[in-house]
Amino acid sequence: MKKQEAIIVDIAAHEDRLGKIRVLAKTLDTENYHSKESTNAKTKDINERWIKLNEDIFDQRRKLLNDLQFQQSILFYKK
Prior knowledge:
The radius of gyration is 20 Å and the shape is rod-shaped. α2 packs antiparallel against α3. It has helices at residues 2-12, 15-30, 36-78. It has three helices and no strands. It is an all-alpha fold.
């Protein structure tokens, strides 16, 4: 569980960088940068991967909590 929490904290630290990428991409788009289509596609890919990563982390944490709850219930019934 502690490793999972450390991973979550580490990944959350990158949220600020992702926000800066989004702002920069939006600026390039609004200022009609010559490669804005490529930039927009890469930004979309980064955003989709970020969402997937966060979903995977949430699912993994939910599974760990369910396993922990199950183990605790087994210990409770053994008493």
